[in-house]
Design a protein that fits this description.
ABC transporter transmembrane region fold, four-stranded antiparallel beta sheet, single chain, 22 helices, 2 domains, Rossmann fold, alpha/beta, six-stranded mixed beta sheet
Length: about 600
């Protein structure tokens, strides 16, 4: 079923509600501008009739003064009309952009895996701009056209009802024309916005992968693909321009025919003495005034079709409900947001004087499928509070998936994971994630300073705390070697840092949060064994009393853990401490011997 014009813009109503008073003020000012606009032909009408009858020079000056006052007043009201109504569109755009960005931050990780970044960026920029044009010039010129036409038509009927009917004999044809071209413009603009999203996604992807493109000498191939997309975008715009190019000439032809009809009928009326020359001139001035609103009507149709097409694309994002959100149990139950503290750190390596006590994490016969493919099967174990668990296993065994379920980056089945005996879904997301320091397998740094990246997620972190976190991560000597130290800009995605340096920044970031649970997902894979040993040595004091989960392919990273779990094809194959697994295990001793051999080869 086709939506009516009101239904198309209905999603904007909540954003327009705070500005109802300003809209009323803007429309009142617009009414004043139209009043002075339509008064000009009337002044001309009476001035010509009085000139024909013979008037004094003083009265002629009076008419000139009235025209000047009307023009100045019209300009004054026009200025404030634009300031108020266009200003509202800017404020609404601001609100929409904030709402859209806030919604982006709440959407689940799965949503971003299904949608391209460039497409979302295009909607947040190009589509939002089209909606702003609908709310600003679109509303202003629509109301102005309707008010001006209502006022002008009323006066035209007073001058001559017959001439007015002749003037609007082609209005039904214009209405059909506007409707037909409007549908065509809407359809073509949707195609253009889709192509713009595709181009934005392509550019974003190419810029992010520029090093790979150059390494494989694929510049020409990548350029050719971009040109193909750009050609398709140009062709879509040409089709829209073709429709739009026909619209204006047809409108002007129809208005020209209306002028001819009025000139013929009005000329005869003047000759027959049915209306005065002043009235006939005023009638033609009003027709001239209506010419721009008729053209503006075509422009408004274009703005409306573009704006509603973009609004529909934005609304699909705003209506998207996150898979992961605060459950009813989390809102109903109150989980203490702050953890108990343990003994004060004594050697200066702790981030704060008091360290939060660790939490117990329990997995209860957990089964989890990703993309309809079983990833974890019957995972059942508990990490006691303050203990360190290590997880090893071959690639694809489900290690990262398991730890991603703890901060609810993905949702595990209800009740299958608990923290301190409380199901995860009974925690508010913000409180749950504040207790966790997480270093994911793929390190991401923001285009900010090293200081800003380390302090990310910790409000009002002191320089001393940031420095301590960097020291624990064995990053301080590297930072002191940079000319700007902690104020060094790391570039997009940390491109100016090495892989090991990026990982150490991420570790410092997690440590600075002073978490109850620290998760390191292969966080030392890019550092050498010497640096790894220094980091682990400094982390031991930080981890004392906290709960930690370490994922690594290196035995040296995990051998001191309280318990080690070997995952294989999504299930627990072996578990125990280092000595126990070496004594009775199968995969673990094999991995250990393999790494010893690699270390021997490195030293050789």
């Amino acid at each position: 079923m086709t939506e009516n014009p009101i239904q198309r813009v209905a999603p904007l109503f909540p954003y327009l509600r705070p500005y109802v008073r300003r809209y009323c003020l803007g429309f009142a000012v617009l009414l004043g501008e139209v009043t002075f606009w339509v008064s000009v032909p009337q002044i001309i009408r009476f001035g010509i009739d009085d000139l024909q009858a013979g008037v004094s020079q003083d009265k002629l000056l009076l008419y000139i003064g009235l025209l000047l006052v009307a023009a100045l007043a019209k300009a004054f009201f026009l200025y404030w009309t634009r300031m108020i109504l266009i200003g509202i569109s800017r404020d609404t755009e601001y609100d929409l952009r904030n709402a859209l960005y806030e919604h982006f931050t709440k959407l689940s990780l799965r949503y971003y895996q299904k949608n391209r970044t460039g497409d979302l960026m295009s909607r947040a920029t190009n589509d939002l701009n089209a909606v702003r044009m609908l709310l600003g010039p679109g509303i202003m010129y629509s109301v102005r056209t309707l008010v001006l036409m209502a006022a002008a038509v009323t006066i035209l009927f007073q001058i001559s009802a017959t001439l007015t009917l002749y003037c609007f004999v082609l209005v039904p044809i214009i209405a059909v024309l506007v409707s037909a071209f409007g549908r065509s413009i809407h359809h073509r603009f949707e195609k253009i916005q889709e192509m713009m999203s595709t181009i934005s996604a392509k550019v974003q992807e190419s810029m992010a992968g520029i090093r790979v493109i150059r390494a494989y000498a694929q510049e020409e191939t990548d350029l050719r693909r971009f040109r193909e997309l750009n050609d398709q975008y140009m062709e879509s715009n040409r089709k829209l321009i073709g429709v739009w190019g026909m619209f204006y000439p047809l409108l002007e032809v129809l208005m020209g025919i209306s002028y001819v009809i009025v000139l013929w009928a009005g000329g005869r009326a003047v000759i027959n003495g049915e209306i005065s020359i002043g009235s006939f001139v005023a009638f033609n001035v009003y027709m001239g005034q209506l010419a721009w609103p008729m053209i503006a009507l075509g422009w408004v149709v274009n703005l409306y079709q573009r704006g509603t097409a973009s609004l529909a694309r934005l609304n699909t994002i705003l209506q998207e409900q996150p898979d992961i959100r605060d459950e009813e149990e989390a809102i109903r139950e109150i989980i203490p947001p702050s953890r108990p503290v343990i003994s004060r750190s004594g050697n200066g390596n702790g981030m704060r004087a008091d360290k939060p006590a660790g939490v117990s994490v329990g997995f209860h016969h957990l089964n989890f499928s990703y993309n309809e493919r079983p990833t974890l099967t019957d995972i059942d174990f508990t990490i006691p509070a303050g203990k360190t668990l290590a997880i090893v296993g071959p690639t694809g065994s489900g290690k990262s998936t398991l730890v991603n379920l703890i901060p609810r980056l993905f949702n595990a089945p209800p009740g299958s994971i608990t923290m301190d005996g409380v199901p995860l879904r009974h925690y508010r997301l913000q409180e749950l994630r504040r207790m966790i320091g997480f270093v994911p397998q793929e390190t991401f740094l923001f285009s900010d300073t090293i200081r800003g990246n380390i302090a990310f997620g910790v409000e009002q972190a002191t320089d001393e705390q940031i420095k301590q976190a960097a020291e624990i991560a064995s990053l301080l000597p590297d930072i002191e070697g940079f000319p700007l130290g902690f104020d060094t800009i790391v570039g997009e995605r940390g491109i100016t840092l090495s892989g090991g340096q990026k990982q150490r920044v991420a570790i410092a970031r997690a440590v600075l949060r002073n978490p109850s649970l620290l998760i390191l997902d292969d966080a030392l894979s890019s550092v050498d064994t010497y640096t790894e040993e220094k980091i682990l040595h400094r982390l031991r004091e930080v981890l004392r009393g906290r709960t930690a989960i370490l994922i690594s392919h290196r035995i040296s990273t995990i051998r001191d853990a309280d318990e080690i779990i070997v995952l294989y094809e999504g299930h627990i194959a072996e578990r125990g401490n280092h000595e126990e697994l070496m004594a009775r295990g199968s995969y673990y001793p094999e991995l250990y011997q393999k790494q010893l051999l690699e270390e021997e080869l490195e030293r050789a």
